[in-house]
Amino acid sequence: MMPRTLYRKLVDSHTVATLDEDNVLLFCDLHLMNEYTSPQAFAGLHEQGRPVLMPEQNVAVVSHIIPTHPGAVRVIADPASALQASNLKANCERHGIALFDTNDRLQGIEHVVAPEHGMIRPGMVVICGDSHTTTYGALGALGFGIGTSEVEHVLATQTLVYRLARDMRIHVDGQLPAGTTAKDLVLMIIGRIGAQGARGYVVEFCGPAIEALSVEARFTVCNMAVEAGARGALIAPDRTAIDYVLARAPDIDDAMRARALAHWATLRSDADASFDVQHRFDAGEVAPHVTWGTSPDQVVRIDGTVPAPEDHADEPGRRSAAQALAYTGVAAGARLDGLPIQHVFIGSCTNGRIEDLRAVADVVRGRRVAPGVRAMVVPGSGAVKAQAEAEGIAALLAEAGFEWRQPGCSMCLAMNDDVLAAGTRCASTTNRNFEGRQGRGAITHLMSPAMAAAAAITGTITDVRKLERHHD
Question: Which residues contact 26 (CB under 8 A, 6 or more apart)?
């Protein structure tokens, strides 16, 4: 057999039929649904009188539209959003699909909830009507987003007509310097290869720097890969990933465990496998990164300066940069270090996990949120919220002046009650800084949780490496 990449192994093992040179019928092990991409799919299913073929391999989560205000009971006040949630519940009850509903204590963001409950295992194909499904590549699963019409097809058949991607490998040598994180690494990579640099590819991340990352840090890298245009992201499952899965999958008994470990050991690219494109980076060059524009690739080191439009080689790049500078109000040649912010948002499927909140607490300990800054922390799930409260993180942040919220997507995108006013500048741990992403006219600067925490306590975008850490 020809040497194969990890990506091709996963596709081959899930191919029900080869349709033509570029397309296969792909079996999907797990289909995750949310409230905003499933209603039309269910409606189409019902119009044709079709059942859900494999309801036990579908899971639904209410996440994007849900309010995160503190309180024992959450009520979705917006009528259209409330209808989406009630429709999802009715559809799940009708078809016997598991649902993390509005007031489920384990409710949260789908891409945080699924892996923490052991739903994601190496070698799976996982799909969802959300682009950040690439997150699951951190566990050696092929995850990717699909459209509403495809959701209907999966509900009816548990398969998907899938167009094959090309293979890209990104090898990262060295180790991350102190004061930097996986978020800084992936922002640097996106900045270098561009927002379309991985378009049409599934990216396999590898190398010593990737192997040294925790699973939660790997989630961040794979989650953000789509911001370089990637159709998927993968990291070969190693002991770190396997231990994470086994700790969260009590259904894997001794007999199943032996078979699983044997199979998972094969989930890596063959030594002679061919990649269409390869990139190599040195983690030792990573510094804290912050976006200056309206695309994740419009990013700069915190100790660097904002590029001028004329620094771009092509006319579209120059136009995009000029438009971004006009929108964000940042000047070419300026430093972002010291730029005043009015809002801080910490959360999302990119950086709403317990490790992220611990990093925030390490920066905040012994300090307070700067006057005039509103700082919000939204845990990625009910389980993350409970753990942060048990560890004293929630109390520490509340005492420092942060708002401690209920879990959900919240201010990652303006689809719920948490919306920024026009002109508000926000230090955000989310994945996208598009125009209006967090509110019409709002300005988003993407950064790591530690950097966002530093912004909250100084009132400006600040190099977290310059802050002395306070410890108990």
Answer: 11, 14, 15, 16, 125, 159, 160, 161, 162
> Could you tell me if 209 and 149 lie in one domain?
yes
- Please check the confidence at residue 471 and state whether its pLDDT lies above 70: no
Task: List CB contacts of 20: < 8 A, sequence separation 6 or more.
Answer: none
- Cβ atoms of 392 and 367 closer than 8 Å: no
Domain co-membership, 67 together with 180: yes
Asked whether residue 134 is assigned to any structural domain, the reply reads yes
Say whether both 105 and 140 belong to one domain.
yes
pTM: 0.97
Could you tell me the CA-to-CA distances from 125 to 59, 134, 446, 468 in Å, in that order?
A: 14, 11, 29, 44
55 and 201 share a domain?
A: yes
Output the pLDDT for position 470. 56
Whether 137 and 256 share a structural domain = yes
Calculate the dihedral angle through the C-alpha atoms of 453, 459, 464, 468, rounding to the nearest 10 degrees: -100
In angstroms, the Cα distances linking 17 to 9, 11, 29, 451 are 15, 11, 16, 47
How many Cβ atoms sit within 10 Å of the Cβ of residue 83? 14
Q: Which domain holds residue 304?
A: 292-466
- Are residues 359 and 247 part of one domain? no
Give the per-residue pLDDT at 1: 81
The sheet carrying 58-61 orders its strands as 98-100, 58-61, 30-33, 125-128, 142-145
Q: Can you give 201-213 as a three-state secondary structure string?
A: EEEEEECHHHHCC
- Which of 453, 444, 230 minimizes the C-alpha distance to 330? 444
CATH, residue 27? 3.30.499.10
Q: Average pLDDT in the 139-146 region? A: 98
What are the pLDDT digits (tens) for 265-307?
999 999 999 999 999 999 999 999 999 999 999 999 999 999 9
Q: Which residues of 207-230 are buried (b: 16+ CB within 10 A; e: fewer)?
A: bebbeebebbbbbbbbbbbbbbbb
Tell me whether residue 284 is in a domain: no
| Strands in 211-276 per DSSP E | 232-234
Whole-angstrom distance, CA of residue 367 vs CA of residue 109: 29
Residue 148's pLDDT is: 86
The residues pairing with 281 across neighbouring beta strands, listed in sequence order, are 172
**Does residue 1 form part of some domain?**
no
What percentage of the chain exceeds 90 in pLDDT?
Answer: 95
| Co-location of 323 and 246 in the same domain | no
Q: Into how many domains does the chain fold?
A: 2
